[in-house]
């Protein structure tokens, strides 16, 4: 073979390879082409030919139509038709990535082939985005405005987020786009970006006064959630809200309002995530033939695309616009042809801890003017938006009490009061509307046999803690052990609070530790008041939700008192008709009910030995002067006690709750307000 022939073969193979690579690129979707990092291709004649198409498709107003595969070759007739449409602004949009994708492509090819026409077209796109913005900061789906739902402020398919992301790169001069606008345009982009963020803050939906997330579209005048297509009803969006929050988290030195918006949205994402369910697809010839939701305990969290505005319940719609609450009720065409669930919020939850550490704590740390009196409010009107942040920023071992006032709202967070944050008081705005809620449970923690003790919504490890006028709940449901409030500290007062859960609602522990519960509503199923500390429940409502046991004390042998219920009312759900007063978690359990009103749900025998014969001798279960149909002293187990008057005199607050350091902590249980 001659040398010349070898050269020809090599050139042919090289040409064939290049043509193959180019064909592979042009076979990609337009979106994929605009997003790929391939500088060599953007130098090619193939890329230049595509750029000519992009220029042709751009209207003189600066925008592009949507759903166009710009890389497809155009005939001479098609080119002539596009030239004739240059002055027609109709159907220019930012929907489905239109305009933003073309601008990205122009930036990438300009960097490799600096044709001034590309720069001019890019800047015309910037001008289009600036002109399309409403005075309130939002953007419509189409500009010029097109009649119908297209005039709504559009978060749908991340349209407005894409616009703001472009403006952010320009105003911050990041160099992401190779084309640098003039300082005048940069300043306009900054103003437009700030207005857009302000619009996002104003459109964040309040559910019963609490900030949550966003709808796919909002009315351009009222800013309220709005309807789009028949099956896109006003709702909270698990999908669109994710990209909005990621944008807010990308803002340097976020304002107090942005910080509050992010914190509230993250709490909402945590609250509405769906676990144990996954989407199963049947694909035939590359097309989805069927979708259905199946139970899978190992499935990662997902979020519904549409959720009710008032209670976050996922719903689905066919083209008739009628809400359904199961995907299986939707016709095949919409069921298989639309994205009803998303996992996009997972990126928010993944990035949030770092963002919170870098921004949220830094912002709120400087807002508290008086470190001994601070306010937590989800709407950003207080010193903190998170209860835990307020605790973390409280002084250690203070000489005087730290009062943290918590405004109404559902605070979806685990709260820990560490051992060094003594003398802290939580004061809620109202018992019914100030709610600390989380949903950890034994199986979810899954760290061995002691997982129960890692589940509390609120964990108190610091002495002299006081909480009043709020609700603490474990919202996991009837899924096994799940603590709402865990008290592992001394001289703790809980006043006028709801403590809600199922199994193991309230845990009080620590040999020699004492707690006082006053005017509280405590609800649960199995052993929902348990532990080894001395605890007095004064004028509380102890509410059973199922047939089980109210208490499971594990009192230390050295403790004179265990659980003491004074002037309490024992109530129950209708289905709870056979409930024991208690059983011994450990054999020296001590539990006494005095002057309590017992409902008919209390079993006549009253107490259960938990199959521990030793407990019948070692435990101390007693009652005194109780009333109601559940008080049947004549039918109680023989090893329980009915106190005499002389014995009952030993059960006073001063005696039960006496502190070893009487001088310093005298009457600690009454001087807590």
TrEMBL record:
Residue span, Pectinesterase catalytic domain: 373-657
Family classification: Belongs to the pectinesterase family.
Keyword Signal: yes
Gene that this polypeptide is encoded by: pelA
Reaction it catalyzes: [(1->4)-alpha-D-galacturonosyl methyl ester](n) + n H2O = [(1->4)-alpha-D-galacturonosyl](n) + n methanol + n H(+)
NCBIfam families assigned: pec_lyase
Record keywords, A-Z: Aspartyl esterase, Hydrolase, Lyase, Signal
EC primary class: hydrolase
InterPro entries for the chain: Pectate_lyase, Pectin_lyas_fold, Pectin_lyase_fold/virulence, Pectinesterase_Asp_AS, Pectinesterase_cat
Name of the protein: Pectinesterase
Catalytic center residues: 527
A GO molecular-function annotation: pectate lyase activity
């Amino acid at each position: 073979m001659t040398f010349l022939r070898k050269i020809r073969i090599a050139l042919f193979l090289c040409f064939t390879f290049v043509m193959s690579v180019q064909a592979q690129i042009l076979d990609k979707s337009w979106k994929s082409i605009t997003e790929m990092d391939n500088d060599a291709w953007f130098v090619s004649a193939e890329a230049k030919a595509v750029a000519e198409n992009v220029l042709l498709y751009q209207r003189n107003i600066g925008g592009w139509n949507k759903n166009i595969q710009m890389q497809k070759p155009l005939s001479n007739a098609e080119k002539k038709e596009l030239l004739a449409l240059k002055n027609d602004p109709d159907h220019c949009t930012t929907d489905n990535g239109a305009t933003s994708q073309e601008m990205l492509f122009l930036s990438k090819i300009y960097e490799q082939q600096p044709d001034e026409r590309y720069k001019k077209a890019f800047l015309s796109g910037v001008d289009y985005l600036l002109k399309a913005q409403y005075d309130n900061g939002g953007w419509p789906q189409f500009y010029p405005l097109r009649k119908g739902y297209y005039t709504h402020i559009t978060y749908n398919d991340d349209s407005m987020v894409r616009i703001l992301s472009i403006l952010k790169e320009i105003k911050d001069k990041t160099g992401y786009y190779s084309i640098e606008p003039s300082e005048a345009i940069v300043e306009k982009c900054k103003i437009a970006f700030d207005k857009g963020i302000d619009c996002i803050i104003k459109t964040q939906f309040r559910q019963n006064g609490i900030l949550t997330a966003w709808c796919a579209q909002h009315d351009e005048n009222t800013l309220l959630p709005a309807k789009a297509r028949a099956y896109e009803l006003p709702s909270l969006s698990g999908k669109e809200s994710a990209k909005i929050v990621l944008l807010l988290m990308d803002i340097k030195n976020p304002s107090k309002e942005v910080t509050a918006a992010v914190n509230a949205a993250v709490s909402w994402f945590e609250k509405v995530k769906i676990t144990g369910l996954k989407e199963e697809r049947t694909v035939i010839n590359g097309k989805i033939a069927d979708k259905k939701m199946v139970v899978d305990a190992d499935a990662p969290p997902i979020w519904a695309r549409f959720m009710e505005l008032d209670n976050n319940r996922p719903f689905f719609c066919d083209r008739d616009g009628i809400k359904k609450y199961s995907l299986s009720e939707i016709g095949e065409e919409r069921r298989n042809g639309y994205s009803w669930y998303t996992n996009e919020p997972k990126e928010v939850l993944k990035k949030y801890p770092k963002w919170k550490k870098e921004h949220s704590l830094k912002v709120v740390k400087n807002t508290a003017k008086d470190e001994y009196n601070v306010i937590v409010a989800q709407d950003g009107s207080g010193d903190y938006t998170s209860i835990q942040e307020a605790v973390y920023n409280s002084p250690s071992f203070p000489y005087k009490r730290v009062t943290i006032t918590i405004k109404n709202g559902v605070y979806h967070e685990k709260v820990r009061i560490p051992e060094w944050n003594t003398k802290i008081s939580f004061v809620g705005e109202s018992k019914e509307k100030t709610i600390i809620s989380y949903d950890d449970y034994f199986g979810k923690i899954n760290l061995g046999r002691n997982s129960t003790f890692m589940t509390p919504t609120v964990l108190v490890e610091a002495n002299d803690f006081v909480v009043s006028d709020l609700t603490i709940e474990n919202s996991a449901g009837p899924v096994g052990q799940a603590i709402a409030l865990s008290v592992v500290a001394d001289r703790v007062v809980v006043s006028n609070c709801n403590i809600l859960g199922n199994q193991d609602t309230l845990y009080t522990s620590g040999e020699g530790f004492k707690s006082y519960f006053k005017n509280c509503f405590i609800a649960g199923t199995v052993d929902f008041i348990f532990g080894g500390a001395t605890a007095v429940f004064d004028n509380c409502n102890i509410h059973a939700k199922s047939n089980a046991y109210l208490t499971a004390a594990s009192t230390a042998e050295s403790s004179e008192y265990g659980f003491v219920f004074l002037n309490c009312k024992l109530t129950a759900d209708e289905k709870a008709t056979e409930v024991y007063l208690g059983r011994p978690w450990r054999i020296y359990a001590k539990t006494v009910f005095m002057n309590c009103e017992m409902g008919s749900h209390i079993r006549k025998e009253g107490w259960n030995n938990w199959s521990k014969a030793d407990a019948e001798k070692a435990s101390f279960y007693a009652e005194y002067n109780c009333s109601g149909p559940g008080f049947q002293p004549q039918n109680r187990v023989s090893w329980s006690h009915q106190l005499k008057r002389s014995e009952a005199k030993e059960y006073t607050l001063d005696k039960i709750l006496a502190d070893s350091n009487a001088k310093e902590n005298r009457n600690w249980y009454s001087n807590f307000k």
